[in-house]
Give the backbone structure.
Amino acid sequence: MPQDATQRWNWKVGIVQWAEGLTGTVSKPVRKLVGESVLGILTSGSVQLSAMARSLREPIGLHSTEKRLSRMLADHPEVAEAVNEETLRRTAPAVTEGMVLAIDPGDLNRDGARASEGRSRVRDGSTGDVVGGYPLLSIVARDTKRGRTLPVWTQLYSTQTPDHRSENAELKAAITRVSAHLRSQPLWVMDRGGDRGELWGYWLERGDRVLVRACNQRHWQWRQGQKRTAQQIASYLPCKHQGQIGAGKQVQFGITTVRLPEHPDRPLSLVVVQHGKQEPLVLVTTDRIRGRRQGQRLIRQYMDRWACEEGYRLTKQGFGLEQVQARKLASLRNLVALAHMAWALLAVRDPEGQRLGPWCQPLKPGAAPKFLFYRLLQGWQRLFQTAETGLYGWFRQRQPEPLMADLFPQSPAECRRLVP
């Protein structure tokens, strides 16, 4: 029990430090909201306001706590911007040049909440159907050597707001914001959605290192200026190198040089991977790939892009984002940003699972978790399930109870004067 209390104290100190880092951008009551919300999300494993309020264990009515959280999240739209900026400031120093920055435009399914503010039409990545919801944008850093995942940026936006221009504008703005905090030049990795002319022009102008999966909807200059699609090049290119995808799956791949017709002076490397499926995997990168080892490393870096998908899974399933009952756009944006900060807090303060390891359910001997944060979240909830209070006493000092001498007059003469 003393060890549990010490660990809870240390984690609460970390939450308060992250919340107090917002000084200068938001008010003190909003910083209290951020600290309490992050603790509530981690302890309850949910972004539903009722679950968050219950896990805070405040010495007031549960309805009052939930009402306060709901009001503050709806009335302070600046929380999402400030929280994302503070989370980026905390996580960016850990991003090194050998890491992969996976970009993934996702979605938040709100098809059953028709009264949600600013709801638009999005494609559900799980089913492929077009539903009502909001676009999500997530950037996750992945260390391919150590197998670590670090959340960097997550935001929710609406296409119905007056300041929205396009998805490309949102992507470029997020990349610019993240790049401003980086101390190195990691590899940006994106799936088929990254093969866009506007994004290619933006990346080449900035000089970024990029890896994109070709979507076979454009022509590339290849071999003496011939214009071919990605699949046409894949059908002609001999795949003489052998590599692996996943757990020992052997693949054949080939390497060649291509150029964009709009940027003929910038050579790009194209890698074709024959993996047994009907359509080969075609990857295009700004890095120069000249041999089997570099090609194998490039394929592994692309496969590590799926760490971004695990991040979406943690946010949607681990924190129950799609079950939240908030309808205000500001509340939804704030909850997404706060869930992202909660995930980043675990990733930065306990990247190896050593602090919360004793409270996690033991795994099978020799079995390593594929995604560490589910285990860390379980350990957090076990650690705080015996906590008596949350952060109420840290942020709100109780007023001392009045003494009897303060309630009644002191002198008999004053008593006689008050009596009619």
Q: What stands out?
A: The chain has 15 helices and twelve strands. The longest strand covers residues 130-143.
